[in-house]
Amino acid sequence: MLSQQIEKVNNIESRLIELFENERKSDVPVILSYSQKSLELLAKFISGEIQRSVAIGIAGESASGKSTIAHEIIESIEHYAEAHKLGKVITRVNTDDYYYDRSEEVKKAGSMAEFVKTYDLDVPEALELDLMFYHVQQLLSGKSVMLPKYDLSGTTIRIDNHTLAEPSKIIISEGLFALTEKIRNAFDFKIYVDIDTETQKNRFFARAEERQLGDSAKMMYKNVYDKAEIYVRPCRNNADIVLSGAAPIDSYRKFLNKILDLITEIYFG
Asked: How many helices (H) and strands (E) does the chain have?
């Protein structure tokens, strides 16, 4: 029985390596690099050798595409679960919701644009990552938690105990600092989204215009870029899997479906 389980895990791992290698070598890959250890662990989860919930952390620079990628992963898994009548299988814990409430400081400054001239939102200390770590651990242990909700429209209001999060098979988080020292050990799979500077810069200023940040945008970008050098880019070295933030989102969908097809073959084929 044990030998059969080992063979099953090894077979799944071999299939995963083939999928990841083919993708990495494609013309416009979504996979830039991966560790074989991470695929071995993924094979153990897929095979059922590890039966507990799995935690995934996704990090990357501002405007790297990490939120879009996380959303695509969540949506693809939810559609798959619905099609196979698996119920709720994924729970999102949004890193941005753990920013400390600084609404009184914004009021005193007169606006968000003035506030960010003196307060740095682009450092890990701006977030309560200890609380996030605790919430992820609680969910992994099968307990429900009440998550905070942070207003990203410019008020910096955080409402604690806002959203009920139920434990599920997959816990996923994404954010600038999701793989920094305080929080990264909460995750089984550490994913980093890499992006070239020109694409990232163009996305950042497009977003700044939408948020009406005005003249503060240039100063904010310099701060974001400089702080990413210190706090975010080094997280690439701790990642199990590095993704391309420049790849078309449809490419992610296709790659995710290949993994889901493998799971279908194992359990429903």
From this structure: 9, 8
